[in-house]
Amino acid sequence: MLARVRNQFIGRRTQLANSILGYAAEFGFTAPKGLSRLQQFLIDIQADATVPDLAKELVDTLAAELARVDEQIAKLDKKLMQLHRSNEMGRRLAAIPGVGPFGATLLSIEVVDARGFKSGRNFAAWLGLTSKNHSTAGKNRLGVITLAGDGMLRTVLVAGATAVIADMRRRESRFWPWLKDIIARKPPKLVAIALANKLARIVRLRSLARS
What is the pLDDT of residues 34-55, one digit of tens each? Predict the structure, then answer.
């Protein structure tokens, strides 16, 4: 419940930020990238004499609601970290690149017994991180991912994989040799899914270590 409530607030924060950026664009303001730059963006709007007072007031109302939602997310994050620190399995899973405290806590709650999955591939399939297999004229082709299982867990792993890939590109760090090769050959989304699949298999192995 904690994870899902937090997820709802994050969705609300994204909605509010997009609303502010969308309305501001109608007055000629270019949207910055990232929530961290939104505060300065709001200051620029209030300081611009060409923006009507009513528009500034409405943007300020949205900004106040955004600040309230941010405060609630911070409180939920604090509770999540408390839960994470008290969870031995969660602490072990958090050491996996791209998983993090939130993903580790969620996985440790949802995956009660990893022995219920015969293999890492079965676990990845349960999460919806494996491709559908299509057979035509005796030939097998892999299609889109199945989107089975828990959508929140899948989203967490894909987001974590995306962060790992971005870190590799930014700092030229290297986690796995095969990943660098795939990054050079495949579209970003496919790379993220492939890495999320790999992370899921590692999660299963780490979970079994507890048994």
Answer: 777 788 888 889 999 999 999 9
Full 3-state SS string of the chain: CHHHHHHHHHHHHHHHHHHHHHHHHCCCCCCCCCHHHHHHHHHHHHHCCCCCHHHHHHHHHHHHHHHHHHHHHHHHHHHHHHHHHCCHHHHHHHCCCCCHHHHHHHHHHHCCCHHHCCCHHHHHHHCCCCEEEEEECCEEEEEEECCCCCHHHHHHHHHHHHHHHHHHHHHCCCCCHHHHHHHHHCCHHHHHHHHHHHHHHHHHHHHHCCC
Contact (Cβ atoms closer than 8 angstroms) between residue 129 and residue 154:
yes
Instruction: Give residue for tokens 């492939």.
Output: 194
Only one residue has tokens 């690149």, namely: 97
Q: Is the pLDDT of residue 140 over 50?
A: no
Do 192 and 161 contact (CB within 8 A), yes or no?
A: yes
